[in-house]
Amino acid sequence: MTACDINDPSLAPQGWKRIEWAGAEMPVLARIRKAFTETKPLAGVRIGACLHVTTETANLVLTLQAAGAEVALCASNPLSTQDDVAAALVEKGIAVFARRGEDEDTYYGHIRSVLDTHPRITLDDGADLVTTLHRERPEQLAEIAGGTEETTTGVIRLRAMDRDGVLKYPIVAVNDALTKHLFDNRYGTGQSALDGVIRATNILLAGRNFVVCGYGWCGRGIAMRARGHGAHVIVTEVDPLRALEAAMDGYRVMPLAEAARIADFIVTATGDKHVVDAEHLAVMKDGCILANAGHFNVEINIPALERLAENRHRPRPHVTEYRLADGRRLRLLAEGRLVNLAAAEGHPAAVMDMSFANQALVVEYLWRRQGQLPVAVHPVPAEIDQEVARHKLDALNIAIDTLTAEQQAYLASWQEGT
């Protein structure tokens, strides 16, 4: 039997239906899987993956399996696992260690179970797998040929490891591929975060003050979609260039200490800690809704919220309402975890198609170049980025122009002028 720790194996039939539904929206990954099935570029390679266990991830894992890899998978967030998907993958021979709602000890126990398989390549979403490997299993580091990282938060952590001289194997920052962050982070997070907020609350956004903390690609997407719902969008930032861009894009920009006083919704998307802090909680109006679209549940200072509250209760499945001593009610969604995955289904498959196409091709690239890449956080090779974009355009039946020989020569020369 396949090694696993999942909630309910009987959910596999339901999981297969949803995996196939998502797969129909992932034509680029399907093309890669077809090619991998024939060439088997990862034959016998052990892969350890710490990713959100969703229908889209299932299609990536099945693509790697079709390439000949032996995959072990755990969750990258305690609330992001889709239990029916986990059951379906186990049925297919994937070692899955993931239970929706698992506690922190179980979460890290599952990461260790993946490391017990002695992977040669790691796939990470937030860098918990990589950091656990470096802290607890240094003797295994020599076995690793390379790894990938899916998220902005994870890339930040890995670059810090690299700067501190503790990173011990090369990692490719898949998050930084143009075909990843321009689409997954912006359009994926924009749609799925709003989906999570709306599913959790069923409260009308139109006419409400909707605060977005952070104007990176995820924040841009959330702000864009909230404005599309008729909300009055306010952006808070610490980066002057991003703040200026938000202002030029037509949003109000102000410090969070001011925005918190008038906010109906506050959504964080920064990758940092305690963005919403005690000083902001102290001035929020009654009924303010707090949600996080960043990777970890530290962007909202939940311990400070707990200290301020006299009591709390659950009026809806993904809403915790905290009643403060002065009578105000503050409503936290999805326990401060990723609202798009904890309260909804995560990014649409069509954008994850490009992100996971990058993952699959980068894994192949890493394995072909094992021992050749220096220890560092590497960008996705431009040729992979371009290949994914071409495949996506082709799948959408979109044709584009090509440069003529004359145009190519002009762009490569300096002789011609005015």
Automatic annotation (TrEMBL):
Keywords for the protein's UniProt record, in alphabetical order: Cytoplasm, Hydrolase, NAD, One-carbon metabolism
Recorded metabolic or biological pathway in which this protein acts: Amino-acid biosynthesis; L-homocysteine biosynthesis; L-homocysteine from S-adenosyl-L-homocysteine: step 1/1
Localization (cell): Cytoplasm
Family annotation (CDD domains): SAHH
Enzyme nomenclature, EC number: 3.13.2.1
GO cellular component, one term: cytosol
Catalytic activity: S-adenosyl-L-homocysteine + H2O = L-homocysteine + adenosine
Entry binding sites for NAD(+): 151-153, 185, 214-221, 237, 293-295, 340, 347
Record-linked Gene3D superfamilies: Adenosylhomocysteinase-like (3.40.50.1480), NAD(P)-binding Rossmann-like Domain (3.40.50.720)
Enzyme type, top EC level: hydrolase
InterPro entries, per the entry: Adenosylhomocyst_ase-like_sf (IPR042172), Adenosylhomocysteinase-like (IPR000043), Ado_hCys_hydrolase_NAD-bd (IPR015878), NAD(P)-bd_dom_sf (IPR036291), S-Ado-L-homoCys_hydrolase_CS (IPR020082)
GO molecular function: adenosylhomocysteinase activity
PANTHER family, sorted: ADENOSYLHOMOCYSTEINASE
Known role: May play a key role in the regulation of the intracellular concentration of adenosylhomocysteine.
HAMAP family, alphabetized: AdoHcyase
Family statement: Belongs to the adenosylhomocysteinase family.
Name of the protein in question: Adenosylhomocysteinase
